[in-house]
């Protein structure tokens, strides 16, 4: 009666069950009659969600990977062809400049060496950190070695973890207490101790690394800024409320009092754990490729997002808001549980572009997306389900899973043993997406390059 009244409702219920958004709600009416009916829903979930959907994701990704591989292979061929064309043109000049193809007074660059030169030039140096100061004192050298070592950074991560745990324990213990009953002595003492440690850690790192080298690392800049802010707020707290003591309860003044600001900034310590990424060299090396993938994925996905938002505004603008005004007089308790009206999903509509984007995002997450299918099919047309199913297929099934697959492949590639044997110096280099397909890319042969060059209408080379 509820989920399988007719064929369209049955198809919709099973389609939503593929995403497990209506599980176990869709099973409960039949399961209440006979427990054996659960076998039907369990088999459908296993075959549909765990097998079919993952198989569909693998097929989509494999097709896209083939297209991407073909595109990268074509790009590699054009790059090699352009470099070889430049080499042939420079070699054919009667008066070759001394700095063009000469390695020294007697040697000339070969085609392979010329190509190797461009490969090295293509590695754009991102950043080279300044050198550490050189101390003459033997004691200062030991101090520099101790506090400039990576283990000192690991200690800072452990202390940050201890800070988070201690603050969370105090806040949980005070959660059920009234503000007038709370004793903030322990939290104030914890703040004092950890802020002093962060200040000491920052000063020792500056002593060991030098100010310029210390500031050259983004993680150090973040830690230093955070430490300075905490120190200023702590000093201001002492000036206003005095030093922590048993029974210490700073007054609450306004929405964000000075004491509340100290607590909020203290929570930023959790981001100190992002400093572990540079210590994991393989992840740090692949992060630039991840950023490139994220940017390219977002640029293409926002086009699809924009097109569906505009289409949704054209199809569904108006009916939901008008029904919202008509239902304001009804008691929420009399409405059917789990419906669009009972859940008060009225802000999720297509009356403007911003609302359309949020609605599409909620559907893409597929949590309670059956509510949108039911509501818009009732308020506009039963064919509205096609729009939402198409958006679910394109956004959640194709684009999101494709993005996850690309990240996984890039991560697995960077963990390849041959990649781990590469020496990583203090200079970071920009890497391209071609490295993801380095093992399967085919270098163009000499014959293919020369044949393509001789076919060029504006390039005349001697055979």
UniProtKB/TrEMBL annotation:
GO-annotated biological processes: calcium-mediated signaling; endocytosis involved in viral entry into host cell
Superkingdom as given in the UniProt entry: Eukaryota
Coiled-coil zones: none
Main location (coarse class): membrane
Keywords for the protein's UniProt record, in alphabetical order: Membrane, Transmembrane, Transmembrane helix
A matching Pfam family: Ion_trans
UniProt xrefs under Gene3D superfamilies: 1.10.287.70, Voltage-gated potassium channels. Chain C
GO MF annotation terms: intracellularly phosphatidylinositol-3,5-bisphosphate-gated monatomic cation channel activity; ligand-gated sodium channel activity; voltage-gated channel activity
Mode of membrane association: Multi-pass membrane protein
Key word Ribonucleoprotein present: no
Official protein name in the record: Ion transport domain-containing protein
Organism: Junco hyemalis
